[in-house]
Amino acid sequence: MTVRFKQPFNNGVYFITLTCYNWLPLFQTTNSYHLVYTWFNYLKEKGNHIIGYVIMPNHLHAVIAFRNTGQSINTRVGNGKRFLAYGIIEQLTQQNNTGILNQLKAGVNNTDKKRGKLHQVFQPSFDCKECISDSMLTTKLQYIHNNPCTGKWNLAEHPSAYEHSSAGFYYDGKHTAYEVMHVGELNNIDLSNV
Fold first, then answer.
1. Strand runs (DSSP E) across 1-98, as ranges?
2. Comparing C-alpha atoms, which of 167, 137, 135, 134 is closest to residue 56?
3. Mean residue pLDDT across the chain
4. Separation of CA 5 from chain center
5. How far apart are CA 63 and CA 14, in angstroms?
6. What gap in Å lies between CA 147 and CA 187, rounded to an integer?
7. What is the pLDDT confidence band of residue 4, given thresholds at 50, 70 and 90?
8. Beta strand 12-19 with 126-130: parallel, antiparallel or unpaired?
């Protein structure tokens, strides 16, 4: 489900996807993977749990167990997108990458321009699906982890070899770039507390 409306829940386990504007490889171009890990740390500090993720050159998939903090899931993901966007723009500016900066400027619609927005770093909406069963969680994690090895990507020979993914933890028991909570621990946490 593409999200352009408010999620009715403040907590639960969700599969989310953030896509860079026009599928530009912004994470790769700016080497901004660390920004995603910083956002994940912020979410963890607020009582949320990162269950799985993959950061592709132009999009991000994650399974996140959102704790009820009184903030909507839309707000938390929207704040994350804003944080990532500012960081990516800063990196592009430091690189003096005027070509991509101009593309991102041209992508801002008139309504957002009037509100002061300068760059369209991500697609305006994001995908957000509640994981309502163990089998759905397993399917989403498999999809996430296989993403770097499928289709046009060929970023790694095996999912666990791709650095910016939780696949190494699920396949080999070793965290690569970022430590996640194993899906099997979900039954031990309470997401309903504020």
1. 2-3, 12-19, 49-55, 59-66
2. 167
3. 92
4. 18
5. 6
6. 27
7. very low
8. antiparallel
**Domain regions of the chain by residue span:** 2-188
Nearest to 55 by CA among 36, 38, 40, 73: 36
Question: What is the spatial distance between Cα 73 and Cα 6, in angstroms, rounded to a whole number?
Answer: 8
Predicted confidence band of residue 125 (pLDDT cuts 50, 70, 90): confident
What is the band of 102 on the pLDDT scale with cuts at 50, 70, 90? Answer: very high
Stated pTM of the model: 0.92
- Beta carbons within 10 angstroms of residue 141's beta carbon: 22
SS3 content of the chain, % helix, strand, coil (to 5): 45, 15, 40
Kindly state the average pLDDT of the residues 57-71.
Answer: 95
3-state secondary structure of 58: coil
The highest-level CATH class for domain 2-188 is alpha beta
Under a CB-based contact definition with an 8 Å cutoff, are residues 96 and 111 in contact? no
Structure tokens at 31: 């080497």
CB atoms within 10 A of CB 173: 9
For residue 100, the number of C-alpha atoms closer than 13 Å in the C-beta half-sphere is 23
Dihedrals phi, psi of 11, to nearest 5 degrees: -145, 165
> Which whole number is the average pLDDT over 141-149?
97
